[in-house]
Amino acid sequence: MNADGLAIQMDDEAWDRVIATNLTAAFRLTRRAMRPMIKARHGRIVNIASVVGPRANAGQSNYAAAKAGLIGMTKTVAAEVARRGVTVNAVAPGFIETDMTKDIPEAVIDAIPARRVGAPDDVAAAVRFLASDDAGYVTGTTLFVDGGMSA
Amino acid sequence: MAATVTPEAVEKTVVEALPQFGVDESQISRDATFEELDVDSLDLAELSQIIEDEYGVQLKGDDVGKIKTVGDAIDLVVSRAG
Questions:
Q1: Which range of residues forms the domain containing residue B11?
Q2: Which residues of B touch A35 (CB under 8 A)?
Q3: Closest chain B CA to residue A77
Q4: CB within 8 Å of A63: residues ≥ 6 apart
Q5: Which of A12, A42, A116, A117 is surrounded by the fewest CB atoms within 10 Å?
Q6: What is the mean pLDDT of chain B?
Q7: Chain A residue closest in CA terms to B50
């Protein structure tokens, strides 16, 4: 969810709404989901972050703050629960074909090293890996699925 | 339906729960500190959860931070239930 605008013109409501949806909601869900996972000594949490946050995107200071916060939360919660067999990771998509990105200008796509937007399946594959038994020793990390944008 | 809180019942719950955090049962007494037992903050959070599930008594992070011994934990649960 986003509510774009330059920071100098962004009202509190646009800031709060984006932080609430993209960061606070993830925290509350994580807090609740961890209980049975800790009890079971096994669990997987995969947060969907964004390439925006670790890198700039003018007009999205609220979204960038939420997604960078989500990555920070992912690392710290991962450290807290690692010894219970629960992993906490993030996937950071770049531009992916969705309603949110359908009006991307050609110039933006030219700036992506892969020269194309990603497909939802590209993101799903990363989530599937982090949720799998193969990823049992992978925790606190952010896997970028961005066609090389943050390389 | 939550179980009735009595010092004896809570002590039993605590003593039975601690071994799953790697505590040697023979080391457990009211005077034993969680530090001596090598019970860390995540273990205490999990113990709080077990107590909440069993007795419906919610222990907050602040409360749990203050307790030092097994006896403190039992007394805290009993006082919160009152």
A1: 7-81
A2: 49
A3: B42
A4: A2, A3, A4, A18, A22, A50, A52, A53, A57
A5: A12
A6: 90
A7: A39
Chain B residues with beta carbon closer than 8 angstroms to that of A80? 42
How many residues are given for chain B?
Answer: 82
**B49 shares contact with chain A (CB less than 8 Å):** yes
- For residue B13, what pLDDT band results from cuts at 50, 70 and 90? very high
Share of chain A above pLDDT 90, in %: 87
Residues of A in contact with B46 (CB under 8 A): 38-39
Contact B49 A84 (CB under 8 A): no
Structural domains counted in chain B:
1
Check whether B29 has a pLDDT greater than 80. yes
Q: Could you read off the pLDDT of A68-114 as tens digits, one per residue?
A: 999 999 999 999 999 999 999 999 999 999 887 778 888 889 999 99
pTM of the model as a whole: 0.88
User: Residue A77, Cβ neighbours under 10 Å: how many?
Assistant: 20
* ipTM of predicted assembly, 2 dp: 0.78
CA distance B48 to chain A (A): 11
In a domain, B62, yes or no: yes
Q: Judge whether A63 counts as a catalytic residue.
A: yes
Task: Parse chain A into domains and list their residue ranges.
Answer: 7-145
Pick the CATH number of A7-145 from 3.30.390.80, 1.20.58.340, 3.40.50.300, 3.40.50.720: 3.40.50.720
User: What's the pLDDT score for residue A61?
Assistant: 96
Contact A41, A85 (CB under 8 A): yes
Q: Is residue B60 in some structural domain? A: yes
What is the CATH classification number for the domain harbouring B67? 1.10.1200.10
